[in-house]
Amino acid sequence: MTKVNCLNPIAACGLDLFSDNYEIVDSINNAEAVLVRSASMHELELPESLVAVARAGAGVNNIPLDKCAEKGIVVFNTPGANANGVKELVVAGLLLSSRDLTGGYNWVKANADDPDIAKKVEKQKKEYAGNEIAGKKLGVIGLGAIGAKVANIAFRLGMEVYGYDPYVSIDSAWSLSRHIKHIEHVEDIYRECDYITVHVPALDSTKGMLNKEAFDMMKDGVRILNFARDVLVNDEDIKAALASGKVKKYVTDFPNPAIAGVDNVITLPHLGASTDESEDNCAIMAVRQISDYIENGNIKNSVNYPACDAGVCETAARVCVCHKNIPDMLTKFTGVFAKNGINIANMVSKSKGDWAYTILDVESQVSDSDKADIEAVEGVVKVRVI
Fold first, then answer.
1. What is the distance, to the nearest Å, from the Cα of residue 152 to the centroid of all Cα atoms in its chain?
2. Closest listed residue to residue 9, CA positions, set 33, 36, 28, 43
3. Which of 69, 299, 309, 363 is deepest in the core (most CB within 10 A)?
4. Are the C-beta atoms of residues 36 and 7 closer than 8 Å to each other?
5. How many CA atoms lie within 13 A of 23 on its CB side?
6. Which residues pair with residue 380 across a beta bridge?
């Protein structure tokens, strides 16, 4: 029985996909798999039994990726599962940045008891006039699952869309409308666009990418949208840009003490994936990935180990090895099996950065001593026999 611990509530439509061979447990102690949404795992003691963590969402900054890799714990996320929910909120953000809907709403609410409110509306509404987005230039930085959807819907709303992503995947490229203008240098988006929305992960190379240097290149009155990660935008620099009028509005899904309440900042409480549909999609995707890894050893959408798929095992046993990406590992694995008289029928090995993953299908049962011999190979961090 595989024990699964949920650190956050996970949609039942996902948990129901687990077979009777899985048990949902209340404690991470002795759990083999963890499902998590926003709970921080950085301070948790990770048990030796743990082999997989699945984040029901895209961001994984709440998970200690390096620590997990070193312990042979494969961390999954669910890219694209919440993409439509975020895309729709970005559209709302475009409208919020263009029309003073919040100002108008707050005025009506504050004057709800005024018997002459209907008459006063006609005089007051000019205070909340705005602009239409049709015909304006939108720059989309990052054309992954969410960015591609944002680019396509913005074009259909009548915007002229510029897209920038030097690492765009084949799937995303195929999904993009041919009307999206592919931009080779992000500086061209800074200079040309009336609206800029950012959809990239939080990496050392992207943190603070929207800063004074970037704002100085932009049009006066540009509107900035950030539904990706708060650290992509330098808080002090955007406050200065807002104060000077360089940036007209900043819409973000990540309030913090530095920008919450600042004039012309519209902050939402991280609502991007907060739809029933997104939570269901993330739960289903996370459970399917965990199940495939536990039952077949296959890895899809891991953030710390490489994708690796050997299908369903059709031999006597399957040996799955998490190890360092160093030379001669495969020779050592095959040497162990040759010494022990075990024939390898199929083998798949992939690497990603400092780490690698190997699946070996063998034609006879693997004993505890056979497994121990693989574990003893320098650079191996975890071995599972399926």
1. 20
2. 36
3. 299
4. yes
5. 10
6. 323
Q: Are strands 33-36 and 2-6 parallel, antiparallel or unpaired?
A: parallel
Q: pLDDT by residue (tens digit) across 301-352?
A: 999 999 999 999 999 999 999 999 999 999 999 999 999 999 999 999 999 9
Q: Which of 225, 269, 229 is nearest to 59 (CA)?
A: 229
Long-range CB contacts for residues 200-206, cutoff 8 Å, separation at least 24: 200/141, 200/142, 200/144, 200/147, 200/165, 200/228, 200/232, 201/59, 201/228, 201/229, 202/59, 202/61, 202/228, 202/229, 202/231, 202/232, 206/232
Say what percent of the chain tops pLDDT 70.
100
Work out the burial of residue 267: count CB atoms within 10 Å of its CB; fewer than 13 is exposed, 13-18 middle, 19 or more buried: middle
Strand duo 33-36 + 222-226: pairing: unpaired
Q: Please name every residue paired with 331 in a beta bridge, in sequence order, or none if there are none.
A: none
Q: In sequence order, what DSSP letters do the residues of 336-352 get, joined into one string?
A: HHHHTT--EEEEEEEEE
357 has a pLDDT exceeding 90 = yes
Identify which of 263, 261, 216, 260 has the alpha carbon closest to the alpha carbon of residue 241.
Answer: 216
Nearest to 202 by CA among 227, 225, 237, 183: 227
The structure tokens listed for 272 are 């991007």
Q: 358 pairs with which residues across the strands?
A: 321, 349
Q: What is the largest CA-CA distance in the chain?
A: 92
Q: 287: pLDDT confidence band, cut at 50, 70 and 90?
A: very high
The mean of the pLDDT values for the chain is 96
Both structure tokens of 201: 């992960």
Res 138 pLDDT > 90: yes
Residue 338 contacts by C-beta under 8 Å, 6 or more apart in sequence?
none
Angstrom distance (rounded) from CA 144 to CA 162? 14
